[in-house]
Write a structure and sequence with these properties.
UCP019307_cupin, six-stranded antiparallel beta sheet, Cupin type-1 domain-containing protein, Jelly Rolls, globular, 9 strands, mainly beta, 2 helices, 188 residues, Cupin_1, Cupin_2
């Protein structure tokens, strides 16, 4: 059992967004699952990268894979859904694959926020807004998933990569809450 406890489900504020395909970024158009933000999923005062990794492992839905910021290049993953938890600082991020996408989502996230990024959703760092420490997240992928790929919206990505996205299942539980939680209330 992890000593880190997420916010209660009753108090959790969740944003769900469907983002249309744009150019060579499929976003959420190929599957019924939305991009989601769990606002203040964890209390910033008790949060560290290690405690988040331990908590995610104890839930058993995803494996923490890295600690880093977000790439400034718009990209998506075609073979895996991604869970991102902000563990340091704050940032302005873009979801939708391009700043020219009229349906893009620009959001500010900060320490304690968690994001569920379905395969196909383009994402990029617009601005690190941290004052004291550089923006950092823990990135995680479903247990049993392959190594994630990096698709940058090339014309060649559209055929086989989009087909791969259509064949993916969904997370087998909520990565933060386990057998309850917002991830289980979406989709099919």
């Amino acid at each position: 059992m992890s000593p880190l406890q997420p916010a209660s489900l009753a108090s959790l504020r969740v944003s769900k967004h469907h983002i249309s395909a744009y150019q060579n970024f499929p976003n959420t158009s190929l599957r019924p699952y939305p991009f989601m933000i769990y606002h203040s999923a964890y209390s910033p005062s008790s949060l560290s990268a290690s405690s988040v990794e331990q908590h995610l492992r104890s839930i058993g839905v995803v494996n923490p894979a890295w600690r880093y910021t977000m790439y400034k290049q718009h990209h998506y993953h075609s073979n895996v859904d991604e869970v991102l938890v902000v563990v340091k600082g704050s940032a302005k991020l873009c979801f939708g694959g391009s700043l020219s996408n009229p349906d893009k989502l620009e959001v500010e996230v900060s320490k304690g926020d968690a994001m569920i990024v379905p395969a196909g959703v383009g994402h990029a760092l617009l601005e690190d807004k941290s004052e004291d420490e550089p923006f950092q997240m823990v990135g995680s992928y479903p247990i049993g998933s392959k190594n994630w790929d990096m698709c940058t919206g090339e014309d060649s990505d559209k055929g086989s990569k989009w087909k791969t996205i259509r064949t993916l299942g969904w997370l087998r539980g909520d990565p933060i809450y386990g057998d309850k939680g917002p991830v289980l209330d979406v989709g099919e």
